[in-house]
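A.,

Following up on our hallway conversation. Structure tokens first:
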């Protein structure tokens, strides 16, 4: 089955056809590095990782660019408020540069723990200031800009397809934009391309420009970088759904105004992670959970979160709760046990990928990355009567998309002392044939995040 993706631009699933035959240009909007990423942000990066892996699984080569927003993103998405980086700097008593460095590293660590494949190129906004200035100059030469007391703005009324991504009528977009008042803007939806440094304060991050000292607006970085690093291969651009009305709408307007060409053919957006009651997880709310405090500190394998994300289609809101984490954890333990079983039974068999089950898997992932259905196929395959060696070969093939490190499930690792003690006690109980005690200890060990399996070679304990 050919790959079908939901394109926000046309609001329907479409067959994916890249500009070049086998090569795909992918741009994913990256983090604003003034704080840790929360697990809502990380849900979006998991969706984008699945997209990339599905493209690779389909045989495409992928050039993937991700930006690091380390300047210019203000607390209000529409050019009002403080620069988030300067705010982070005040909060932590470090320079904005140090804050950016620290949270960039933390972000890279998070995505590594989630088995998210790194982009081919990371680009910091502060490393492309000249490209951004050049793009703003082009827009100025073409008559799309005007100057106010605080910056250079893009005149959205001059770009006729301004609502092509949001599909809102202009009136309601303008209405939404009026929340942040700037009397000098000609239209409420106009946005800053360049902002001047305030006269009385010296900003930590500022640059000279033809218009005066200042810093770029938030949206211009993604236009400048995607065109710089992908050239004409503007295939897919992604982010969370909150980017549709402002950030991506503005990226399209300024890029297409500057080049006169189409800017990206496919726009894909991941729905939010919400908490009970339907509230969106956000950095500005107290419902902010990081991978560190929700998983690592509780000694829960971060891949449990990746597995949890597969249970909801990326275009549907995903509800997060202790209960959903518990269910995902059990689900992953079960999957590991199944894989371990087929590895043992199939050991020595020269397995090969089962073509029927491969085709069924492709049908689900190529249907707009339908991971809940893909996980159902995984279970059908593992429970089927094909040979265990073939099951193992097939699950490893699926894992190119799942990214759950299923080739590692059989590898033992050093256990924490407390767990090792329980394991030893269980071993003693088994030697004494005290099966009730052995079962009870297995449950305790499992509650501590380790799965226990009795094999002909002895007890195996694996972290989950
Ligand atoms: P930011 O670091 O705030 O620029 O956001 C990084 C990415 O996370 C963007 O693609 C956002 O659209 C996305 N995002 C923000 N909040 C959520 C959420 N609650 N659930 C899923 N994605 C989100
Ligand atoms: Zn962006």
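Then the amino acids I'd put at each of the 464 positions:
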């Amino acid at each position: 089955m050919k790959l079908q993706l939901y394109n926000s631009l046309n609001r329907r699933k479409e067959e994916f056809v890249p500009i070049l035959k086998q090569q795909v240009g992918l741009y994913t909007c990256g983090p604003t590095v003034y704080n840790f990423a929360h697990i809502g942000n990380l849900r979006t990066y998991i969706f984008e990782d699945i997209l990339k892996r599905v493209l690779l699984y389909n045989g495409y080569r992928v050039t993937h660019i991700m930006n690091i927003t380390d300047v210019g993103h203000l607390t209000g998405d529409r050019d009002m408020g403080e620069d988030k980086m300067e705010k982070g700097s005040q909060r932590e008593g470090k320079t904005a540069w140090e804050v950016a460095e620290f949270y960039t590293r933390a972000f890279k660590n998070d995505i590594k723990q989630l088995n998210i494949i790194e982009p081919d190129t990371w680009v910091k906004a502060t490393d492309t200031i000249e490209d951004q200035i050049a793009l703003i100059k082009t827009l100025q030469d073409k008559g799309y800009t005007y100057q106010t007391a605080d910056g250079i703005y893009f005149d959205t009324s001059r770009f006729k397809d301004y609502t092509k991504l949001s599909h809102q009528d202009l009136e309601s977009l303008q209405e939404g934009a009026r929340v942040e008042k700037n009397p000098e803007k000609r239209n409420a939806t106009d946005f800053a391309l360049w902002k001047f440094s305030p006269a009385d304060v010296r900003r930590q991050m500022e640059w000279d420009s033809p218009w005066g000292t200042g810093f770029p607006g938030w949206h211009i970085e993604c236009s400048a970088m995607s065109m710089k690093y992908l050239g004409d291969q503007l295939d897919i651009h992604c982010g969370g759904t909150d980017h549709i009305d402002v950030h991506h709408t503005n990226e399209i307007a300024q890029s297409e105004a500057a080049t006169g060409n189409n800017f990206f053919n496919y726009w894909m957006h991941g729905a939010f992670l919400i908490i009970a009651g339907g509230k969106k997880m956000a950095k500005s709310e107290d419902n902010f959970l990081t991978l560190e405090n929700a998983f690592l500190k509780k000694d829960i394998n971060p891949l449990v979160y990746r597995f949890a994300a597969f249970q909801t289609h990326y275009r549907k809101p995903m509800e997060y709760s202790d209960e959903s984490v518990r269910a995902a954890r059990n689900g992953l333990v079960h999957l590991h046990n199944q894989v371990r079983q087929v590895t043992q039974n199939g050991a020595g068999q020269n397995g090969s990928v089962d073509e029927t089950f491969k085709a069924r898997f492709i049908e689900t992932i190529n249907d707009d990355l339908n991971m809940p259905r893909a996980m159902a196929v995984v279970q059908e395959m593992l429970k089927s009567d094909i040979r265990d060696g073939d099951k193992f070969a097939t699950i490893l093939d699926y894992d190119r998309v799942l990214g759950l490190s299923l080739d590692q499930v059989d590898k033992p690792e050093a256990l924490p002392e407390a767990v090792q003690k329980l394991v030893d006690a269980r071993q003693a109980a088994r030697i004494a044939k005290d099966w009730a005690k052995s079962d009870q200890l297995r449950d305790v060990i499992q509650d501590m995040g380790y799965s226990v399996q009795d094999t002909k070679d002895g007890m195996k304990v694996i972290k989950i």
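The chain has 15 helices and 16 strands. Curious whether your intuition agrees with the design.

B.
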